[in-house]
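@channel sequence for tomorrow's demo:
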Amino acid sequence: MEIEAPEVGTIRTFPGRIEAARRAELSFRVSGNVADFLFSEGQEVDEGELVARLDPTDFQIVYNDRKATFDRARADYERGQKLVEKGTISRRDFDALLASFKSTEADLQAAQQNLAYTRLTAPFAGVIARRYIDRFEDVQAREPVLALNDTSRLEVKIDVPETLMRRVRRTDPADSTTLIYATFDSVSDRHFRLQFKEISTRADAKTQTFEVTLTMEPPEGLTILAGMTTSVVVDTRNMRPNESGEVIYAVPASAITGDKKLEPMIWIVDPKTMTVEPRRVEIGAMTGNDVGVTSGLEPGDRVVVAGAAYLAPGMPVRLLPVTEQPASNPR
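structure tokens (generated this afternoon):
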């Protein structure tokens, strides 16, 4: 593998996907028949506002029945307290009254909670993005009925190749130079500043790209909804290689081995003699199957990435053709 200089001073454009910063699929915690939806798709709701409800008839009947049973058990328990003090009933009979009182009280609380579960409220302020069920349909407990999106802050997701992944860093809000921004075809002359949120540490198995999540304030005068697409521009012309100003080279983890002191080293190939010599390096974080080398490598160095554990200083090596697979124990 030949070490290449990190990509600097360029502008890259990536297709982006708009998502709501917070999103939830709302469901009832009990089964029942949908009596009403109070909002349509696209309407805004406030936190705690009622958005849908089930027919409460059956739940109300259960509640009334358990309330009557509880009232009777409570009355028996209160009479038993007076009787046990006088010795009219045994302690064992009183304990049975107490157990019945507590059991019916728990049943009443469960019925009251189930009755409350027939009302579905918004956990946060947002927009009804989708309705999965119509009125008068039967739904099962925890079956999604509504999708709620918080559009007060949007997320933009892009897939970044490995070579650029380490250069996507947090931007300074006070910096007037836009490093990462989004554009839309309908307003191509406007740039919308993005802020870094998080980055996946595992590459996609098929594309070998890393998902980067950015955040964007909802633009004024422009409707941006979850599911829309955008173009994300990453301008690296004013970026440092990393926060400390050092250059980081990504090499496969198989290229890193240890010397006698267990310090990290890499085998460097001399292109003239096609022999190898060890070189001490300093390493950083590991991302996917690669390790970041912060010191000890230069552009143009050719490193051994297969069979590094079996090499010795001055050992001749040969380059493998693209179609040839590396042996597990090279000699």
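heads up for whoever presents: The first helix runs from residue 57 to 86.
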